[in-house]
Structures are given as structure tokens and as C-alpha cells.
Protein 1
Amino acid sequence: MAEPLELASVYETDRVLNSTPLSVSVEVQYHGLGCLGTRYKALGPLQPQQLAQVLQQQLDTLSRVRHPNIVQFLGLHSSAPDLPLIVHELLPKCLTQCLDHPLPLRHSLSILHDVALALNCLHHQAIVHGSISAANIYLTKDMTAKLFEVGTAFVLRAVQCDYLQPTTVTDIRSFGTVMQTVLNSTEDISTASVKELVYSVVTRCLQADPLDTITLLSSIASILSKLPSRDVSSPLEALLNRHHNNFVSVDSAIDPDPPPGLTPYSDEENPPLLNRQYSISQLQDGFVEWRRCADLPVAVFQAEATLINGRVYVGGGNTESESTANIIYEYDPCSDNWRGLPPVNVTLFGLGQLEGELVIVGGRSGVRVSDLVLVFNHLTQRWKLSLPPLITPRYSTTCLCPEGALIVSGGLSQAGQVANSIEVLAVDQFTWTVVGYLSRSASLCYPSATRVADSFYLLGGYTSDTACSVSSSSHCAALSTLLPSGDLNPYIWHGLPDTPHKQATAATLHGYLLSLGGCTQPYTKPVHNSIHAFSPSLNSWELVGTLPHAVCHATAVAMGDEILLIGGWVEPGKFKRSNAIYRGQFVMQR
């Protein structure tokens, strides 16, 4: 069992959010993010060793339970040795606070549906909650329900001995009581058919059969899902709501309208760019015409970049100051302007997209490595915790972004070792899946990645977090092997001939994999300005052009027939980063 993540820099506030005979929950601040911290009170009959054993059982359970309708466990803060602080995400309110006023029917049914799904998830894993009540059901701003205090049953069993031992049946019956309370506070439950249906479900809960609790919960979730539920808006928001996730803002405020001058982007405003096909010999007979663009606001190397709706997003790289390493910059090629997005709480993150939305994955905050996945909402200009966390926390990772999925490969783990698992988030499943593991030669951090047709490629990178471990290897993986299939595949990445230079940048143009620049030895001169294309028929790298200047560890994005070359390291011996931006296009000889 993996150890729960030990959190540093957690500060308790005086705001008490919940108090029971067993525990007290307060608001805490973790790296500027409001969180919920719970500490058990001194439990009379338990000796310190017994208490530690009981808490370890609960923490093991919290570490392995991930569900969009269960309050997300973030880690442990050992401010007091015997009574550590258990840290969760902070949600706006609990269900008890909403029962003072009548609830719309669609909200009531949606809440009960979400709780049924959460309980179903727990009981499928033979986990008893033990304390189902309105006070332990928290709600997001869009009224998505999340179950809190998972694992309380371990504490209750230890404290209560043989008295009122919690079981799956007591969970179901407690859920029936919650349903009855919610429906009694529902304002428009006057339709006879709806009323009869939902109260029949309550009766089934209160009379739960010990042998049929999982089937019962599954049927309850199915029944409630067919009744009126919450509204949805954008495609991604609809997708998330369909899987009962939430949009939790890193900044608690939500703006109803976009800031002045900003409008959501649409595909109609940014038609697809051309990408003509040429042969290797045609590329060699032509030349690359480069023009300088507006400089990036910061000098950076080893950055990540992605193209969404005609705009380029750059971030996650090494900058000269920590104050700029947590900012993603947006580039508009039409106006040749950059702007910074709101900063995040991590650096060295992976950058990608999912369903046309900007996503950052993992990263590092101080010594802590993150497993969080954040989505940027262009409408509110806020970062949202709206996707499930990674299975393995990692930083300096690479994101691959096929349609309908987000793939994370490589990077460094909390222990500073290369994370060799390949994780995939498929939108139709809404959960991370390990589809395979990188071979030793392909286990890389800081790799440069790109896609050509139905294959993904990794170039260069490091085989460990040391200066002398730089690689000139290149690897290819078919898209079909990177998507969840039910079987682990240890041979996803296949080796290609080494790139001509180390620390080269991967790019795609005219249907070819390109290797841009690089250096002969890591962190030393000479730095190269060559462009090589990989020829599948020859199984070799062919020189096809030159860059506007010598550079390694740059970032590149293809925009139709053009390449956008971003930053990089221009003088390795002097640790000089670049903020230069160039747009290049192959010009063919007539």
C-alpha cells in the first residue's frame, strides 16, 4: 500500500467547519489553496498504538479511493504526532446548510443520485462508510454532491467495540434516512408519479437486504439518473457533469461574465490551418524562411507548448525566476501578442489539452510533487480542479493529446526517479488508467514530444534528474497502443535511430517528424542550428534545413505550414535562456 502524501506548509485557521464527538474539521491553507483539515479528538478507550493503527487503516483507504462523488483526499500533515491532520479538498457547503430552505426537485434528485454512486463505489471495494448523514455530504457550486469522512468505520469499530458496528446495511439505511430528509425539504415534489417513485426508493433503502446492498445502490443510481437533473452548458462541462464531477475554483470567486474584451474562442473564428505534404527531397531542395515574432515575456527552456483554437500556450519550463515559472503564456499569431494567464501553484508541470480546453498535469511545489490536474476556464479566467488526479504524482512530464484522451508519459516522481508508467485519461471513462510502462531506454524526463499521423514520438530528454544523463534516443508509439485496452503493454514505445544531436526539439511539419537543433554534449558547446527530418523508408535522419540560430532544449509548435520556435538554451556553457520567437516556413524551389 502506498504511503499517504506528507504535506508541508499547511497552516490551520480558526474557522471550524464541522465538529463531532469523534473529530473536528477546520479550514486550512495549503500553498494558498483553501482546504479542509480534519483531526480526531483523543479517543478515550484507545491507546496511542491502537489509535495509530486505526488511523493508518483509514489513511490506506483514503489513498486508494478516487471517485468524483467522494471528497478528494490530498494528504497528511503531522503537526501533532499522535493526532495528524487529514487534508481534503474544501467545498463551499454541506447538505445540512441547504436544508433550511426548500430545494428544487432537480437538485434533490441530483444530490441523492451522486451519493448513491459514491456509496456504490465504496461497497464495490468492500469499504463501509459508517457515518452517512447530511453533515457528511458536501456540495460544489453546481450542486454536485460529494461524500465526506470515508473510512470513519475503522474508528467507529475501534471505539464502539461490539456496539452498533457499522456495516454496508447500516450505510444503506442511513442513506435512506438522508433521502427522506432531503425529499421532505423538496419544494416541487407534487407530481404523483415522481413522488411515488422516489419514496419507494426510500422504502427500499430502509429495508435493505444485507445480501443485496450493491445491487440496490446500482438500481437506485439508475432510477435517479432518469429523473430531472442539473443543466449543462459547454461541451467539456457537459462531459464532466455527465460523470458527476465538479468545477472547484482555485480562486473561490466565480465571475458570471468574461472580463471585458475577452470572448470564448470558437472553431468558426479559427479555421483549420493547411499542412501540405512534400517529399524529403523536395524539402532538401527548398529552404526555411524565418521571421522574428514578439518575444516571449520570459526567457525559458524545456517548456511545454500546445495549440488550441489557433492560439499557442507555453509554460511548465525552466525560467530565471520562480515567480514566472508558474505562469502560462498565451500567444495570438494574428495580433503577434502575448498575455499571461492567472498563475498556478506548481511549476515544471505538463501542458496539454482535452476536448479543446487547456490542461496542466502534475508539477512541483517546493519539495512536493503534485498529482492534480487543472483545467483553465476561458469564460471565468480561472483554473479549476475538474479532472481526476494522476495515479502517480510527477513533474517534468510530457502530455500527448489525441482526440478524446489525455496521455501522460515519463517525468520524475516524488522520490526523484523517472516515473515510467504511462497513464491515460479517456473522456468516456473519466478515470486514469495505466496502459503500460516505458522501457529503460524510453524512461525519460523533459522529453520533447510530437505527433505525426497516428503515431506519437519522443525525442531526447534525460534518463534521470542529473546533468550527465541526457539522451539522444528517439521513440515511436502507435496511438492505438496508448489508449486503454484492458491489457498492460510493456512494448508501447519502439526505438528509432538516435537523433543527430542531443537535447533536440521534436516538431511535425508536412507529415514528417523533425529534429530541431540540439548540442553535441549535454550543457556544453557547440550548439547546432540544423533541422533533420526522419525518413521512414531510409530509417534515418536527413538534413532538410536550418534554424534562425543555434539552440537546444527549445519548444516547437506546428501551425499549418509553419513552425513556431520558442525559447530554448542558446549558450549552454553560460546557462543563457532565450525568449526569442520565430515563425518558419519551408519555401519550395519552383
Note: Residues 10-89 form a domain with the Phosphorylase Kinase; domain 1 fold (CATH 3.30.200.20).
Protein 2
Amino acid sequence: MEQQQQCAIKCDLCDTIENAIKFCKHCRETMCEHCSEIHTKSIASKDHEIILRSQASSFDILDDMKCFTHRSKLCEMYCVTCDKVVCTKCVTEDHRGHEFAALDKLFNMKPKEFYFLHKTFQEQVTPRYLKEREMLQRQLSEIEENHQAAETEIQSQAETLRKGIDTVEEKFKRMLTAIMDNEKLPIKKMLASRETSYANLQKAIKEMRTLLENRHLSNIPLRLENIRQRLSTLSLDDNFTICSEKHLFEKSDISQERLETFFGQFTVGTAGDVRKRTLPPVKLTVFIRKAIKKTGVQSLSSVIVVNETDLLICHKTFGFLINKESGQVQREVFQSSELHEPAVMLSNGLLMARDRKSQNKVITILANQARSVFLDLNSDVITGLHLTRKNEILLSMVQEEDCAGEVLKFNKAGQAVLRIYQKETGEALFAYPTSLAENLNGDIWVVDIESNSIEIVDKFGLYRFSYKNSDILKNFKPHSLTCDSNGNVLITDTGNDTIHVVDRDGRALRYLDTHSLGIQPKGIAVEGPGLLWTLDSDKNTCYLLNYF
């Protein structure tokens, strides 16, 4: 029954779901059996011709000629003003005062418009479509070919890596065997000597017993002296030890990230030219996930992710520990400890920052809130701090005497292990370095606010390249930067009110459209995969944004 109702044709008069099998050629309406009987008995419609709907032509049943507003009426006029067909009731209601024409004008005019559009379609649209389709299909083919080539390279690299691991494994096993043989050799020699001496002593005692039994008295004194000497030689000291160094195998830390970095990376460009791009960076629309506003202080400039629940938002001599979820200030941490920007959170949760009274000292705040001087650099001005993956401290500074900038790396004990200040040509690397960060591959990225550039050196301090103005974004003014877990570098650009996402080789992957959100980013910190915090100092607001 339900299926029959779904297949039934609706009656235009009673509006019920009946099997409307009749059709009035005059009214052009479909009717059920009951309504058709009433229709033929009505004085106004008794002369109308009623036929079976199955006998009606497709021209007779013009459902599209029914008025969209008044479904029981047929469209009999063409409204020139609205460019639509209407019924007589529409003429007196919604279309009152409009210009009308007969439907014949519509049938004479619209085909001409259609033929013009059809000509445009054939002569302009179709050739362009075919050309674009060919180009897109060719690009798809190229992408597929590149995919196959890249997959082959990945498989080849994996096979090379596996073979290399097997080779290294065999090499280390051979080295281990040689080391073990060298360790065993003196012990084996000593063991053999002891066994020989012990066997000879046993033999001498046996021979002595035979002499005593046979009463060969003449040989007894000599034999006893021989046994006495052998016993003296073989006597073991209670503190007998063998000095031997034990060789242990110390494993290197091979994390997933380091393995991926060593394995390779995806690039955009031609093989052999890692700096060349064939596609421009993408302008990415970003969304605000959270906004935290701090009132009562001006020009907040840096943000640090402390842990899963807290942020440290700083401005010169102020540092506020803020809960990410509630946005409430937990406490002020700079004033009580007399600290100043820049600051960094150590891996053990302790805070390290510049001393407020002395711009060349770095202070560590211990667990009991006591101050401990980590560095005292005499006349230098400290402008940036960063904690590396090995818990070493990178420090950018400017020398007051000659106004030259440099970057130093210190170990945990506060000893300088690397100084970076010039290129191999002798040219100075930095004018005024500030924000800095270490990437996954060990490269050090440093913001230079005087030259409006970012200088990149490798883990040994050797100059690699500079990141400056691009052909797409002019007026590049970097403020802060950080690195994510994929080895990409995120840079706030105050000249364009945007954030650059750059790969480890300096190729701009995308720009975050923070300008359209009214955000002027300065401070920046990575929250997690695809999420970052950025600080708008003019609004004193810290925003959580997506960057994928």
C-alpha cells in the first residue's frame, strides 16, 4: 500500500494522494476519479474535455507552467521587470505595476538569448575548457609520475638504510669480537699457565708418593724442594684479581624525529636545487581557537608554553603565569625575582631569565625561589635565550663596545662551547640578534632586527643562508620565531601582520592570514601539532591559532 501511494499521481484539485488518472485539457489539471465527476457536473466546466491522463501529450501536461506561488493557477503572462512567468493572480498581487508581455514574446526572445549563450559556449567556453582540462589532466599525470618516482626513492632510501644498518651491525659485531678477543687473551694465557703449573705439581706429588713407597731415599730431599717451590709459585692470594677493562656498548639516542630527519624530506622544486620553488607559498586561512587578554600592562611581547596547563606571557620586567583554560593569572614571576626578558623554561621546570638590574647576567630561579647566577658576561647586552634539545643554552647578545652581535652556546655547567659571530669570509653575521631557536637538524635560526632578516647557521656555527624579503611579501620585519616537531620554522612578521611557515631549507610553505583577523603577531610558541600561540602586543591578547 505504501509503495502504491509513493507511485500515485497527486490530484491537483483535492490535493490528496490518489491515483489521479484523469486530465482536463482545458484546465490542464490532473484529477482523481471523484474530482473528475464533480468537474464534469459543474456548470463552469461541464463542457471541458476530460481524458485519461495516459492519453494526454507531454505538451498538455505542463507542470512547469504552473505558478510557483499559486499552484492551482497556470502562468499566462511574462513579467518583463522580474524576468519570470506569472499567473493572473500574481499580476494583481506581487507584480502589481510591473511591465508585462504575452508569453509569445518570451518564446521569441529567449531562444535568441539561448543561441547567443550556446555560441559563446561553443566558441569560447568549450575550447578553454578543453585546454584547461588537458592541462589539469597533464598535471595529474605529472603528479602521479612524481608520486611513483618519490615512492621509488623512498623505497630505495629505505633499502639503502636497511643495508647500511646491516653493514653497521656486522661491523660493530666484528669490532665487538675483536674487543672481546683482546680482553680474553691475557686471561686465557694466565689460565693456561695456572693449569700447567697445577698439573706439574700434581705430577710431582704423585712421583714423590712413589719414591716414599719404594724407599728411594736419595731422591727425596730434591723432590721435596721441587714440590715446595711449585707450591710457593702456585699459592693463590686471597685478594687475587685480574685487572681488565670492560668494554660496554653505548647506544645513541635515535628518536623517531631524528630518524625521519636523517631519512629525508619532501621538497618543492627541481632535484639538485633545494632553494628553487615551482609553486608559491599558500596563504592559509586561520581560525581563533582561544583568546586570552591581559589587562593592566602594556605591550606584552613574548609567550612561552610552560606545560600542558600554563603559559608564561612576558613584557620586559613583567612575567605572568596564566592558565590556558581559564585565562586567569596564577602569579607574577618576574617582579618578585627581579627578572627581565628574555626568558626560557628549563627541562626541569625551572625559570631562567635576564637579571633586571644587570643586562649582562642570566639568572636561574631555583625550586625554593632562590636566585642563582648562571652567566655573567661583563659588558654584553643579552637579547635572546633558547634551550636546545640537549639542554644547552643558546644566547644572543650585543657587545656595547663595538655594537656587534653574536650568538653563544653554553653547556649545563655554564661553559661556552660555541661562538657564532662571522661568516667564513670574515663578514659579520649579525647586527642586532634577538629571538633564536634550534631546529631538529641542529641548525640555529637567529632574528636580526636591524637587517630585518633571519640568519641560519648549522650546528657547527657555519653560515648556511639568510631568509629575507620574498617576491610575494615585501616589508619583511621578523620579530620572533620558533620551531615545530616537523622541523618547520614559524616566524612572526610585523611588517605584513602575518606568520611565515618555512621549511628547514628556507622555503616558505605558507603564510598565516592573521591580518584579516586583525591580529598583529609578535611573540610565538608552538602548542602542539598544527596549533600555536601568538601574542598581539597592541591588544595585549594571546591567541591560539591553527597553522595546518
Note: Residues 1-61 form one domain.
